[in-house]
Structure formats: C-alpha cells, structure tokens
Write a structure and sequence with these properties.
- By secondary structure, the protein is an alpha/beta fold.
- Helix content is 44%, strand content 20%.
- The chain has a six-stranded mixed sheet. The chain has a six-stranded parallel sheet with strand order 14-13-12-15-16-17. A six-stranded mixed sheet has the order 18-19-20-21-23-22, with helices on both faces.
- Helix 23 links the parallel strand 19 and strand 20 (617-624).
- The model is unreliable at 1-5 and 169-180 (pLDDT under 50).
Length: 686
Amino acid sequence: MKDKIKIKGHLKSYLQWSLYMIGFLIIINLLVGIIDLRAGILLAVFTVIYSMMAIWFYLYRRKRLMGSLVEFAAEYSNVQKQLLGDLDLPYGIADENGKLLWGNRALTEVLEEEKPIKTSRKNITAIFPEITRSTLTLKSGIEEVHSSLRERKYRIQLKAISITEFADSAVKIVGSQELDRSLIAVYLFDETEILTYKQMVNDQKMVAGLIYLDNYDEALESVEEVRRSLLTALIDRKITKYIGRMNGIVKKLEKDKYFFAIKQCYVPELKENRFSILEEVKTVNIGNEMAVTLSIGLGMNGDSYSQNYDYARMAIDMALGRGGDQAVVKDGERIQYFGGKAQQVEKTTRVKARVKAHALRELMETKDRLLIMGHRMTDIDAFGSAIGIYRIAVAMNKKANIVLNEVNSSVRPMMDRFVNNPEYPDDLFLTGSQAAELVDSNTILVVVDVNRPSITDAPELLKLAKTIVVLDHHRQSSEIITNAVLSYVEPYASSACEMVAEVLQYIADGIRIRPAEADAMYAGIVIDTNNFTNQTGVRTFEAAAYLRRSGADVVRVRKIFRDDLSEYKAKAETVRAAEIFENYFAISQCPADGVDSPTIVGAQAANELLNIAGMKASVVLTPYNGKIYISARSIDEVNVQVMMEKLGGGGHRTIAGAQLENVTVEEAREQVKAVIREMLEKGDIS
C-alpha cells in the first residue's frame, strides 16, 4: 500500500527541490567556466557529485521517508481515535436506517450498553422515538431533535457525512463492502441542567392579574343594607385566601376591582382546576338573591412587568366583553378562556347606552358620510340595525349607505320594502367594491352585529376607513376589530337591533323612524330572540315597545318571515334526522338542495330542536357552497359560543356558529362530538 501512495501538495514540492538545484548549479557552472576554465572544471566535479546524491536520495530514500510518514500518520490516527473514544461528548456513527455502527465510551455509558455498540447494533429510532424515518433523510444536511432518556434531556444533532473523506477509517469500522452506503454522525448534547435552570427562571416570573366583580351593585341591592358590608367582606376573604394559597399578593383597587401578582409556576395549577374561584365566589350567600360572579384577566410572558399588566388589562377587557364569569389568560400572543358557564346579567341602567350614543353623535358631527356594514351572509338583525343607523345619519343630515354584498331569502322580503322606494335613495345599498371608492378622510364606517374583522361583509373597508365604530351584541373572541375609535359591545343585549333602538332614543331629540324601518328593527329582535324566548330581558321588551310605538306591525313582520314549503320541509327533515348524542345534545344535518338559504333554515331547525325535552344544546350542520356551516343553540346550561370557538367560530352564549372548510359532513359531525366530549370531561358542561 506504501508503494501506491502518491505524493502531492507541499511534500511533493519539498522532495523535488533538490532536483531543481541541479539545474541551478549547472547554470552557475557554465558562467564560472566562462570566467575561469579551471575553476569551472573544479565546480563541475562538485556539481556531478551533488547531482548523483540528489537523484539517489529522490529515487531510493523517498520510499523510506514515505514509510516514516505513513507510520507517523498511523500513530496520529490511533491517537485521534483514542481521543475520540475518550471524548466526554457522546458521539456515534449510524447508517441511513438509523442502526448504530460505532459509538464512543460516553455514548455507551448514556445508552447503558454492556457490550460495544458496534456489536449490539441498536437503532437510534428505537432509543429516541422523536427521531423518525423522515428525520434520518437529513434534507438540510443537519437535523436537530430534542428527546429524553432515563430522566435526562438531550439535544441530538444528526449530520450527514461523506465516507470518501475517511475511507481508511471507514474500512476498519464498517468493512469495505459497506463503503457505498451513506453514514450519519450522531451527537448527544445533555441539556437537562440548562432546561432545569430555564424552567426555574420561568417559574419565578411575575404574572399580573386583575379581578373584577361583574354584578357587584346588583348583588348588593339584592341583600339587606345592614348585611351588605358582610357580603363584601366575605367576597374579599374568598379572593384573598385564593391568591394567598399561591403565595401571591392581592390589592383592592376599587370596591369591585382587585389587582394580584403570583409566580408563573402556579399558572398550570390555576388552569388545571379551571380557576375554581369562579365557582367558589358564587357560594357566598347571606340572603342575596343574586349570586356574585367575577371575571379574571391574567397577563404573562411579556417583556416587562408593565407589559404583563397591559396583557392583564387586555385579558380582563376580553373577559368582560364575553359576558363575564370567566377567566382569560393572555400568554404573549396566545389567549385562553376558562369558565363562562353563568348566564350574564342584564344591566338595568341605560347610562352606558346614553354615553355611547353621545360619543357616536360627536363623531358623526365631524364627518360627512357614513358607511354601514354588517357581517357576511347578512341576517335580519344586521340588516335592521344597519337601517337604524341609517335613520340616525339622515336625521343629522349626513349621507349614508349600507354595504350589502349578498342578499339571502331571509333578508330579501324586508329589503324589497326599501328598494325602488321613492322615500329612499337609489344608492342606499352598495356592494363592498362600490363602497371602497367612496371612503375618504370624512367617512365613518359603522360595523353592526359583528366584531370579528374576518367575517364582516367587506373586510377591505376596515383597512381603508380611518374612523370605525363597532356596535355588537356577540361575545368577543381573540379576533377583534382593533382600530375602532368607538366600540359598544354588550353581550347581554338580545340583538344589535335592541342596542340601536336604545341609541336612537338618546343620540338626538326628535328622531322619528318610519314604519318600514321600525319593522326591520323589530324583526331583528324577534329573530335573534326566537320570538322573545332567548336572551330576553327588560330592556329587550322596552326596545320592542319603542319600535311598536314607532309603527312596527307585528302581523306584518310575521307574514314577511313565513317559510315557503321547500324550506319548511327541509326544516322538518332536519328535525326528523336528529341524533341524540350523550343524552343531551341534538345533532343533525340540514339538506341544502332546493332551498335558497339553507344556512338560515339550519339555524331555524337548531332552534326547533331545543324544544325536545331534555336537550341542553342543538347543533345543525349545513353543507353549502363548499363549506360546512354549523349552527349551535342552547337555552341556559351550555355555552355554545365556547363550543364553536373550538371549531374556529364564535357568537353568543346561547346562539353561535362556525364554518369548516375541506371536510365532509361526517368529519364535521365527528369534530363537533369530539368538542362536546372534551367539554364534558373538563366540566365546562354540567
């Protein structure tokens, strides 16, 4: 093998240098001979002797030199191999299938092998399940995997290596017959301690929290005056004791507001017991007719303490916007919801409605045009509330248009009363693209019956308009219209039409709405409350009475919304095909063939299924335009908004929905069942 070794590089140049000197000496010899012949002859003798010695050395001593070099390289390779074997870093070589071919002493100790790895031939995919066949392909050349073994955590680095770079060593390790196979270098970095320290640091982080009592004033009014201080003291004690168990601090900011701080290590415990204080505080009863409920907002993993507090404020606003009686955790950009079982309590005071109405009037006085927009596939509540805002704009001598891209069969009968009506302009209704051309700095965009930007009728208008107002009665989700100048979201309201009816009474004096407008708003309340049976409070009937005085005709509204025969049959078929799941949930599918607005029929069928005795909630799936539309309804025991949020939707506590894409009806049905099972296991459904 020594004879076949080729000399190259710097060593080759070094050995050939003596040959180059022969030519140099010959030239010098000639020059000296020209100057002095005797001196040239003498120098020629020495040149011949040097040439013979140089050639002899190059031809005969070269083999001995190379032998010494090879011997040195072999000794160096053995030293290197010994160092690699004794290296504290666990290191090994595996084939393309993950079978370990060789490993150093440290790797043998980690795997607790009694015999050398090259004889045991274990597979790293069996030792570390996180390493899969796809991982071993090493598409990027290097792959990193985090895994654990016997309570130690490792960062495993897999690196593709070329066998030609160390062919001689490879022959010794794997045999010459395997030289055509690729190899993988495996490095194990023990990160147990660093992860432990990171977790310790993470556990010590401060979590900021806010607790607001949802119905403090109402609860106090329901108890005798002499016992009110006792009720307050009991609530304070519950909250202080709850936070004290976690070695936290709590400070009362106002009569119904608290700030607290805890270590982050206690947050998993809070999530595990699903913020038990939400239920504990309801047990405080000293004769009060109304149970006390509270909302919690937690902020964590911010860049600073102040950012955690800002997160907590955002979380508490989200909890209150969703109706209270729940906890919201804002972990960076991630938001989690807990609780929300109790029916939210209607506020009997209209102070907030009056304040919001005055704020809206001040905004409108500075602008020239209003664009009014509802949600996609507009229903009668969005339509009626948009008509109410239109009447306000006209009364204040402002130009107004309603954005309406798609009109379904439920809205068309009411809309026909405004189209081609000489009392209303021809451009009362515009498409989203037409409205986009009108947006300028003097335009207000009023969004009604929706607070999620993705499902508005024309989401592009939210980016164009500088002044945005939101009026909605649906609970807020993590997706909200963030750039709204004025936001009036009241989850306890029955409908957006109820809210607009109240605003109409406070925004200005002398506004008179026409009978067609009163009918549209009254119809919105009737439909959203399912004939005053869902989410109906005192203010709902007061708003209906106001609209009735303004000319709303109950009989006319009922005639407009009668079903045609095909829709009635589809609704009846949906009820007939209902499946009772887990004894309390009615799940069915609404046929879409031959029906103009199958999603509306599906929603109506969901309401009908609630009339079955013992049903806590109903879910109807409607395939339409390549999507599966889900309508969920409940009476009081199930928060269907939480259920639909798990499927990417949302809505109200008793009325909610979702849309699923790229799934079949059966797959969607199974997803609904999985969500119900999960909620039952976690106790979200009692």
